[in-house]
Give the backbone structure.
Amino acid sequence: MLHFRNIEIDDYEKVSQLMKQSSIENCEHCFATMLVWSKRYNIQIAVEETTVFMRSFGKEHIWYLYPRGEMDKKQAIEKILRDADGRKISIYGIDETNAIFLQENFSQVFDVAEDSNGSDYIYKREDLAVLPGKNYQKKRNHVSRFIRENPDYSFIRITSNNTHTAKMFISHWFHRYNSEKSWDLFSEQQGIMLLLDNFDKLELMGAMIETEGRIVALSIAAPINERMVDVLVEKAWHDVNGAYAIINRDFAANCFSGYQLINREDDMGMENLRKAKMSYFPCEIRKKYLAQTR
């Protein structure tokens, strides 16, 4: 029987190592990403036989993250079924290999389909750091305009010594752009603050752009494994020309030298996000799948 409890900061060391050992590179399988949304979705965790299980409760379904670890796959899925105790199940964060496994071994239990709004956008680190060639001309123009209008700008790495500055920027950003008091945005703000409160413990990478004495952009990332990093936070003032472009480029150039790939997560089915992510020419749009009980 799985013993679920609320996810906690102290889970990081053990859980992140188990996740990194897996071949799955979806953004949902990054501990820090789950932590950001833990308040929004009341994410619970269970660790058994060096395998990580996560769940949350929706209106109609219990949502389980596809389990990661050394447990036999069939055994792990059967544990999820027993935990649900007859209630409807949705399993998310499934890569193609494990989608095929579910279709071959649990076809009588689950309908497995592509999660059309859940695909991760994957980029080569060098592309985002250098912005090479004709494809990136518009992005280089945005960067050039920012530098031209802000010649004194500074790139600042986030450390435990300046997280108070980062938290102040995040507070101001959400105050300005969450005027309708959206619970989704409020819970995201709580999650980001949790990351900043535990920045060193979670082994995060982060950066800010400062110009004329004020922060205009911020980004936070966490490693998924040894070759891929997940950018899970990127915020900038919308009225500062090129602020998003400069934090994107400089973060990749200065903080990700040990990684080959950058995961900029999914677009959540939002057209504006899809266009923004496509404008950086991903090297891969990695499909993910959803399994739901019949």
Notes: The domain at 120-265 is CATH 3.40.630.30 (Aminopeptidase). The mean pLDDT is 95. Residues 6 and 44 are 4 Å apart (CA to CA).
